[in-house]
Automatic annotation (TrEMBL), chain A:
Source domain of life: Bacteria
Keywords: ATP-binding, Cell membrane, Membrane, Nucleotide-binding, Transport
Descriptive protein name: Sugar ABC transporter ATP-binding protein
InterPro entries from the UniProt entry: AAA+_ATPase, ABC_transporter-like_ATP-bd, ABC_transporter-like_CS, ABC_transpr_FbpC, ABC_transpr_MalK/UgpC-like, Mo/tungstate-bd_C_term_dom, NA-bd_OB-fold, P-loop_NTPase
Cited PROSITE patterns: ABC_TRANSPORTER_1, ABC_TRANSPORTER_2
Pfam families membership: ABC_tran
Residue stretches making up the ABC transporter domain: 4-235
SUPFAM superfamilies: MOP-like (SSF50331), P-loop containing nucleoside triphosphate hydrolases (SSF52540)
Keyword Zinc: no
Species in which this protein is naturally found: Lentzea flava
CDD domains linked to this entry: ABC_Carb_Solutes_like
GO molecular function terms noted in the UniProt entry: ATP binding
Automatic annotation (TrEMBL), chain B:
Membrane topology of this protein: Multi-pass membrane protein
Domain (ABC transmembrane type-1) ranges: 97-287
Family: Belongs to the binding-protein-dependent transport system permease family.
Swiss-Prot/TrEMBL keywords: Cell membrane, Membrane, Transmembrane, Transmembrane helix, Transport
Principal subcellular localization: membrane
Location in the cell: Cell membrane
Name this protein carries in UniProt: Sugar ABC transporter permease
Signal peptide from the UniProt entry: none
Any matching Pfam family: BPD_transp_1
Transmembrane regions: 34-56, 101-121, 133-153, 159-184, 213-234, 268-287
UniProt-listed CDD domains: TM_PBP2
Automatic annotation (TrEMBL), chain C:
Keyword Ribosomal protein: no
Family matches, as InterPro entries: MetI-like, MetI-like_sf, UgpAE/MalFG_permease
Family per record: Belongs to the binding-protein-dependent transport system permease family.
All residue ranges annotated as the ABC transmembrane type-1 domain in the record: 72-422
Name assigned to this protein: ABC transporter permease
Primary residence: membrane
Length: 386, 301, 431
């Protein structure tokens, strides 16, 4: 059963700015969907339209199968956790949590019980008499969550609820929120710009960019088969290395990708080689995550690019090595076309390459991604999704 | 200057600190002392006139005509509360003192309530013409009340409000509203949107949001406005001069009649003026933070 | 699919919900502010009674009426002098208080007049500037300072009876005298009660050998003979005398307790005895502050007293809003404190100063109570301003509501630029 559906929803501001562009999305009952994207991509606008705080310019929001165009926010059965928690500063924690019950005319006795129940579930039962100003960030977050679910909403909307917390707290709460939502069977639409949150919490993620829904699917699926170069670059840390390659088809043998002055061959039987072959004589973007790259011992052959170590990042448990293989880099946003393409290689911490050293990098062909430079779309056999 | 002083403090322990350090320290010391002296004198200029009025109100008529209030330093025995006793016993003046309350309190309450309601709509409810309406209110901020004296006098005459406390109150409400709306609207729009929307999501109607969220959060602004408006009405003379009759006149208007023979009426005028100042001064001293904020917010009144 | 103009509107919220919130305020504003504005405009084209359309005559009359012209002139003085003075003083004091510890207390003291009524402030300054030095502290202080440098005379208003002509320097004997003569100086025009207690009974001095002697006494005619020394009469001590020869003072002396005086070492040539004017000078009584010539400056000074606290508070708030970084960067760049103030603080503060200034101008244009209270009735026409004139014309002595409306409209037009300034500032802040 579909709890929330957006049908061709667009939001255009009076100045002509398009915040949301023709987005369709549905969230099943009990599903945890994360809207992921950089700031200003329109994800919060979608949330506000679902909440009933904003009316779409075009399209329709459907709740439980019924169009919600003229249903005011307070009657939608939807509740929301705000980025800065939006706790009422003049009310105690208990009164904050009880506010939705109070305004809907819930009798005092029942209200008190519900408040206690929800507060206990969030471990803030002993803070009910305090003011929001006297709470820590994590406690505020819990109070805001408690207030959001106390009415038993059909849908819970969360707008970057963890972004105002410190890193340690954040990782703890990620699991807690996701666990709680599942145990309560809540339908959640969760907005974040943090791809780790998206991947750890979501049943399904939807990636937005400039108001357009670029990709949607299971977290793992989107990570492994990003629909566009932007999604690819946005997901994963360290960021996917993207560089330019010239395609040359050697019929019935292989497709040669010229990367700087070096060549990688895609064997013809590879289905993706057929797709890439359409770009014969043109440039495409090649993407490689660190998982696709391994250091190649000197003299090894195959899909190896050699280059110079540009810089190193020691992370303790691993070291990231940037290797300049003499390729043109690709920026998904198209702003820095002339950046040098560097491959980011992950090595064990005890391996200590030296800056300026020449090293070979082995590329695992199966894990490479190919994108059309013009529209950023993935090149490959169609039919993964959509 | 403060920076210089700090520099010096750092330089001192260092052996062979440059001579300039010591000199500039001396200069800044003297300079600061001089500044303090000047400011103390300025403050004296501000206090002495009020102090003089206070002393004059505590001396009887013959003492006031014979010698200045400053002779009290040599003859403190002249001080007496008789003037105040007389004033309070004076039915007309005492009535006018009460009238001032009867005018100021409702005029303040009405303005605060009406302005809060209107400001909520101007801040948080979308309606066509909202911009225009706000700009009109801003424009009305500086409207001279003289513009309305004649027409409103006619209007009140027609409705039997001329010469009544109600009329005076209504006029004050009308001319208090633009500033009040301006001040509260500024504050209301500064309330985080999330807070309003959270309430909306929590199931609150506009009325509930206004009453349960906006008003409590806007307490400081309401306090500023209340004090400001109260003092404005309390201190008015012109409006009451036109619209109040003898029975509804506030203290400023009641005392005005005594102005003609100022020299011989000092005891009465000083006492009356001081009585009229007691309430505003008390309000000011107790709530000065809010009052100053109100004045800052309403820079254009 | 629907296409909507506004995106801000949330579903289920109609403009109708705004009506109950807005209605009370709008009704009052429309009835008592907007309607009167229009009414005043129309009314200003009708005569005193409101029956006859007179076109622009009220305006023409207004601009030819000498009282209104005085009011205009005074308003111009006010606008030119007062707001600039308050802004300047406020700026200086705000900057000075930045460095002292009791800044808050200081600002509180200066802000206090804002809390009390203009009426009470008027009374305060009426008292301060009261002309009699026994009542007005300003004149009392002036007299004190004056008497410190030129002590007042002992016998104000007294004058010799006969045989003396009055000159700038004093009273000069018409007849010359020489050593050995006795000069009698009977004084009148002075109350016997005011004679110093040490004065001894007057008696004819003996003729001196080679000395010019004389007597100065209070010659009361009632119960005595004019010009003669009577037993009840007393000599006047401490009167200065000069012997003048060819316009030059050759000797000076002073009377003793019995009123006698002696010029001991005069050469034998003729001299003229002169009593310097300082003996009889009327006491300095200060200035007529509340008279026609000083009244406007006096009222302006009291307005400055009232408004300076406002300017300081506002400017101090502006000062504290200046980013410390900007000032420190300038200091690090080698600017002196004065340069920092002149080149960084002032430019950053200028929007605040402008707002303060405009606010003060608006306030000045509406000035009413201060003039009404401080200026005594007889000089009110000298101190007149438009707001007061409007009241007087329509409600005071005039009773001409046509002319009053014209004045109200003029006042409105004078404030209108400030209104536009506010609206523009408001618009800019919003965008």
């Amino acid at each position: 059963m579909t709890a929330v559906a957006l049908r061709d929803v667009s939001l255009v501001y009076p100045g002509g700015t398009v915040a949301v562009n023709d987005v369709s999305l549905s969230v099943a009952d009990g599903e945890f969907v994360v809207l992921l994207g950089p700031s200003g991509c329109g994800k919060s606008s979608i949330l506000r339209m679902v909440a009933g705080l904003q009316r779409p310019t075009r399209g329709q929001v459907v709740l439980d199968g019924a169009p919600a165009d003229d249903v005011p926010a307070r009657s939608r059965g939807v509740s929301m956790v705000f980025q800065d928690f939006a706790l009422y500063p003049h009310l105690t924690v208990g009164d904050n949590i009880g506010f939705p019950l109070d305004v809907s005319g819930c009798p005092r006795q029942e209200r008190t019980e519900r408040i206690a129940e929800v507060a206990d579930a969030f471990g803030i039962g002993d803070l009910l008499g305090r003011r929001p100003a006297e709470l820590s960030g994590g406690q505020r977050q819990r109070a805001a969550m408690a207030r959001a679910i106390v009415r038993g909403p059909r849908v819970l909307l969360m707008d970057e609820p963890l972004s105002n917390l410190d890193a340690v707290l954040r990782s703890g709460l990620r699991a807690e929120i996701a666990g709680l939502a599942r145990s309560l069977g809540l339908t959640v639409l969760y907005v974040t710009h943090d791809q780790i949150e998206a991947q750890t919490m979501a049943d399904r993620i939807a990636v937005l960019r400039n108001g357009v829904l670029e990709d949607e699917g299971l977290p793992d699926e989107v990570y492994r088969h990003p629909a566009t170069m932007h999604v690819a670059a946005f997901l994963g840390s360290p960021r996917m290395s993207l560089f330019r390659a010239y395609v040359q088809v050697v019929v019935d043998s292989h497709v040669a990708l010229h990367v700087g002055g070096q060549v990688i061959d895609l064997p013809w039987p590879d289905m993706r080689a057929r797709a890439v072959a359409h770009y014969d004589g043109e440039d495409i973007a090649v993407g490689a995550r660190t998982e696709a790259l391994r250091p190649a011992p000197p003299g090894s052959s195959g899909s190896v690019l050699t280059g110079q170590v540009r810089h190193l990042e020691h992370h303790g448990h691993e070291t990231l090595v940037s290797v300049d293989v003499g390729a043109w880099g690709v920026e998904p946003s198209g702003l820095h076309e002339l950046r040098t393409g560097e491959l980011v290689l992950r090595v064990r911490p005890d391996v200590r390459p030296v800056r300026g050293e020449h090293v070979g990098v082995h590329l695992c062909l199966e894990q490479l991604h190919f994108f059309d430079l013009a529209d950023g779309r993935r090149i490959g056999p169609r039919g993964r999704r959509r | 200057m403060t920076l210089v002083a700090e520099e010096v403090r750092i330089e001192v322990p260092v052996s062979g600190a440059p001579k300039r350090g010591v000199v500039s320290r001396l200069v800044s010391r003297l300079g600061n002392g001089f500044v303090q002296l000047v400011l103390a004198l300025v403050a004296l200029f501000w206090l002495v006139p009020v102090f003089g009025l206070l002393i004059a109100s505590l001396r009887d008529e013959s003492a006031n005509t014979a010698s200045g209030w400053w002779t009290v330093f040599t003859k403190p025995s002249e001080l007496t509360l008789d003037n105040y006793a007389d004033l309070v016993a004076n039915q007309a003046v005492w009535q006018s003192f009460l009238n001032t309350f009867y005018i100021a309190v409702p005029a303040t309450v009405l303005v605060v309530v009406m302005a809060a309601l209107a400001s909520y709509a101007l801040s948080w409810i979308e309606f066509p013409g909202r911009e225009t309406l706000t700009v009109v209110v801003v424009g009305l901020l500086v409207m001279p009340i003289q513009v309305a004296l004649i027409p409103v006098a006619k209007l009140f005459g027609a409705f039997g409000l001329f010469g009544t406390i109600t009329g005076v109150v209504l006029f004050h409400v009308a001319f208090g509203l633009p500033f009040a709306i301006f001040l509260l609207r500024n504050f209301f729009t500064g309330i985080p949107r999330d807070l309003i929307e959270a309430a909306r999501m929590d199931g609150a109607t506009e009325w509930v949001i206004f009453k349960r969220v906006v008003l409590p959060v806007a307490k400081p602004a309401i306090a500023s406005l209340t004090i400001f408006q109260f003092l404005w009405v309390w201190n008015d003379m012109l409006v009451a001069l036109v619209f109040a009759d003898q029975d509804s006149a506030p203290i400023t208007v009641a005392l005005r009649a005594q102005l003609r023979q100022f020299g011989t009426n000092i005891d009465l005028l000083a006492t009356g003026a001081f009585l009229s100042m007691v309430v505003p001064l008390a309000v000011f001293l107790v709530f000065q933070k809010y009052f100053v904020q109100g004045v800052l917010a309403g820079s254009t009144k | 699919m629907k296409l909507r103009q506004s995106v801000d509107a949330a579903p289920g919220r109609s403009p109708r919900q705004a009506i109950p919130f807005l209605l009370p305020a709008l009704v009052v504003l429309a009835a008592l502010v907007l309607y009167p504005l229009v009414f005043s405009l129309i009314r200003s084209f009708f005569d005193a009674g409101g029956d006859e359309f007179v076109g622009l005559r009220n305006y023409v009359d207004t601009f030819t009426d000498p009282r209104t012209l005085t009011a205009f002139r005074n308003n111009v003085i006010w606008v030119v002098v007062a707001p600039a003075a308050v802004t300047g003083i406020g700026l200086v004091l705000a900057v000075l208080t930045e460095r002292i510890r009791w800044a808050t207390a200081f600002r509180l003291v200066l802000f206090m007049p804002m809390a009390i009524s203009l009426f009470a402030s008027g009374i305060i300054f009426r008292l301060v500037y009261e002309e009699a030095p026994e009542q007005g502290v300003v004149n009392a202080a002036l007299v004190g300072v004056h008497d410190l440098f030129s002590p007042s005379s002992q016998y104000p208003g007294a004058r010799p009876r006969d045989g003396y002509t009055r000159t700038e320097e004093g009273y000069v004997a018409t007849a010359p005298s020489r050593a050995g003569d006795t000069v009698m100086v009977p004084l009148t025009g002075f109350s016997p009660q005011e004679v110093p207690a040490r004065a001894l009974p007057a008696s004819q001095p003996a003729t001196g050998n080679g000395e010019l002697r004389g007597l100065v006494w209070l010659d009361v005619s009632v119960g005595g003979n004019a010009g003669k020394v009577d037993p009840i009469e007393r000599g006047l001590p401490g009167i200065g005398l000069e012997a003048v020869r060819d316009g030059k003072v050759v000797a000076r002396t002073t009377t003793g307790d019995d009123g006698r005086f002696t010029f001991p070492d005069l050469a034998s040539d003729e001299v003229v005895v002169r009593l310097p004017a300082s003996n009889f000078a009327l006491p300095f009584r200060g200035l007529t502050w509340l008279g026609p010539s000083l009244i406007t400056p006096v009222i302006i000074s009291s307005w400055i007293w009232i408004m300076t606290g406002f300017a300081i508070t506002f400017i101090a708030a502006g000062l504290s809003a200046i980013p410390r970084d900007a000032l420190e960067a300038a200091r690090v760049d080698g600017a002196t404190e004065w340069q920092v103030f002149r080149r960084v603080t002032i430019p950053l503060l200028s929007p605040v100063l402008l707002v303060v200034f405009v606010t003060l101008v608006i306030n000045v244009l509406k000035i009413f109570e201060l003039v009404f209270v401080i200026a005594p009735g007889s000089v009110q026409s000298e101190a007149n301003v438009l707001a007061l004139q409007m009241w007087q014309v329509s409600f005071g002595t005039g009773g001409d509501q046509g002319a009053g409306s014209a004045l109200a409209v003029i006042l409105f037009l004078l404030v209108a630029p400030a209104m536009l300034f506010n609206i523009r500032r408001f618009r800019r802040e919003r965008s």
